[in-house]
Amino acid sequence: MNSEEAVLAAFDQQMRQGARVDGPGARVERVGDVVRQVGTDQDWNGVLWSALTEDTADAAIAAQVGHFTSLGLRELEWKLYSHDRPADLPGRLRAAGFTPGPEETLMVAEVSDLPTEVALPEGIHLRPVTDPSGVDLVVDVHERVFGTDGSRLRHRLLAQLAEDSDTVTATVAMSGDQPVCAARMELHPGTDFASLWGGGTLVPWRGKGIYRALIAHRAALAAERGYRYLQVDASDQSQPILGRLGFVGLSTTTPCVYRR
Questions:
Q1: Predicted local confidence at residue 221, as pLDDT
Q2: In CATH, 110-250 is 3.80.10.10
Q3: Where does the record place the N-acetyltransferase domain (predicted)?
Q4: Where are the domains of the chain?
């Protein structure tokens, strides 16, 4: 892989500063030194990138809060990275009413360096998600593994499959007719990056290689589509597995959420 600094710079430029919408119905806006996505309450709404200074940060934060609340949206996320400036941006966001969530590690690997052979435990098969019944399986796993409401994920996947299926692939690992793990890959045309999301495995099925198999499956799909890098926001649980596969941590990211 190129130097970590070069890959991080490419990620910032292509995936944040040059961000494209992550689903039908949303729009990306570039206002001054801020790039944001705006949609409905069923979409992800928030700030993707900023280039702020100590002199401009507080006014920019207040402007974003004012803009999103004026639209009647209930929630705004500022996707904060540890290399963002100014250095005290986390404290400024907290002072403005944002609540930080769990920190994750931005990890990237070159697709050509990743294993693409899918080795599944006996009795497990992969089901591509192409219809609403498959989306239901993904959401079921998501809610059971992460303990969060999956209505926004359902809305997004259904819209992407119906209107823009070239931007996402989703897969469910099945034991018979029961879903045991689900994962998706967001595709970003015009960039070097595809991104991995989900990867949740039900507790009885962990430690059997299913998560690794779904990474290999998605790496093969990314290679077929010509993407150079795979990117993932890794939790503490998945970070060691990804590191053994060849992913490198480039930064950390924290979702800072403002709710009305």
A1: 97
A2: no
A3: 124-260
A4: 4-105, 110-250
